[in-house]
Amino acid sequence: MERRKVIAGNWKMNMLPNEAIDFIQELTPLVKDTKNEVILCVPYIDLFYATLNAQDTNIKIGAQNMHFEESGAFTGEVSR
């Protein structure tokens, strides 16, 4: 049995919910026929919108945690 490849990414603390929605809508047709597993790990503020927009797609949604800075490239973080 061949293992599926995992394609995962995040955008740290850099996208607002409307940008997350647009991104997922643009990504969906590009990955709809892939045999790979596609995962987006999004910050808390985008989690609700990402989950809704990834329904009925092959995109899985994961969550990130918090960080005290206002913005920046803090992997897995969301500001307070």
Molecular structure report:
The protein is α/β, with parallel strands linked by helices and 80 residues long. It has a 3-stranded parallel beta sheet with strand order 1-2-3.
List the helices and strands and how they pair.
Elements: E1 6-10, H1 17-31, E2 37-42, H2 44-54, E3 59-63
Parallel strand pairs: 1-2, 2-3
Helix pairs in contact: 1-2
Features:
alpha/beta; 3 strands; 80 residues; 2 helices; 3-stranded parallel β-sheet
Shape field: globular
Number of strands: 3
Element pattern in H and E: EHEHE
| Approximate strand percentage | 15-25%
Instruction: Calculate the mean pLDDT score and round it.
Output: 87
Work out the count of structural domains: 1
Q: What is the CA-based Rg, rounded?
A: 13 Å
Physical arrangement of strands within the biggest beta sheet: 1-2-3
The N- to C-terminal Cα distance equals: 44 Å
Q: Figure out the total of helices.
A: 2
Note the main sheet. 3 strands, parallel
Derived structural class: alpha/beta
**Range of helix content:** 25-40%
Unreliable stretches: none
Q: Care to give the gist of this entry?
A:
With 80 residues, the chain is of the alpha/beta class. It contains two helices and three strands. The protein has a three-stranded parallel β-sheet with strand order 1-2-3.
